[in-house]
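Dear Dr. L.,

I hope this message finds you well. Following up on our conversation about the binding site, I have prepared a predicted three-dimensional model of the protein together with coenzyme A. For your records, I am including the exact sequence and ligand specification that went into the calculation, followed by the structure tokens. Please feel free to forward this to your student if that is useful.
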Amino acid sequence: MLTTDLKLVLPSAHYRESFLAAYEECSSLEKNDWIYLGPDGNEELIYNRFDEYVAMFYEREHTAPSHFVRGRAYWALADNEIVGRIGLRFELNDFLSNYGGHIGYIVRPSARGNGVATAMLAQVLATPEAQRIGRMLLTCDEDNIASERVIRKNGGVYESMVYPVGRRLGKKRFWITLAGNP
Ligand SMILES: CC(C)(COP(=O)(O)OP(=O)(O)OC[C@H]1O[C@@H](n2cnc3c(N)ncnc32)[C@H](O)[C@@H]1OP(=O)(O)O)[C@@H](O)C(=O)NCCC(=O)NCCS
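The resulting structure of the complex is given below.
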């Protein structure tokens, strides 16, 4: 797979089969992250009401349920197959300002180790929506070496480690300052 051919698209029912095949590859711990709707996302929704699922992302650009923020979801395509998803949050709440940051991503297991996450993040950082935010907070678990590399390769500068209540692992915080921002 050539990551130069990677293309970010907005969610669409057109990619249903590929999205579900990728979901099935995810481990049980990763499945909810792949769906990316928090408690509103579930297997019944993606298998039986895919159009509704897709519509929820468009709604979330304008309105977020409580405890969530507005944002945009992108799917990454290579050879017309979905290989990853990446979400940009337009604003941060208390939780995200400490632990979650502006961007979250996951790569389909069979597509890992090919530069997909690095390329997805680079492409999102180049969008007008990210440019408007200017200074982006990114976080990863202290033992997530691959994610840390993705962040650092996209200009992430380490700031600190924080310890979410009830979690064994610390979260590393990084800042990416986009060109033209102080
Ligand atoms: C973390 C994740 C997004 C990385 O995606 P990816 O497409 O495989 O990443 P890339 O191919 O762009 O690799 C980025 C770097 O990590 C390194 N890397 C990849 N997998 C690795 C692993 N298992 N262990 C150590 N380093 C690894 C790569 O070598 C590369 O570094 P390099 O350029 O110095 O060689 C992917 O493993 C994933 O989806 N994990 C589960 C969800 C997750 O952790 N999301 C991030 C939450 S913060």
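In brief: The pocket of coenzyme A is lined by residues 30, 105-107, 112-118, 140, 144-147, 149-150, 153 (CB under 6 Å).

With kind regards,
A. P.
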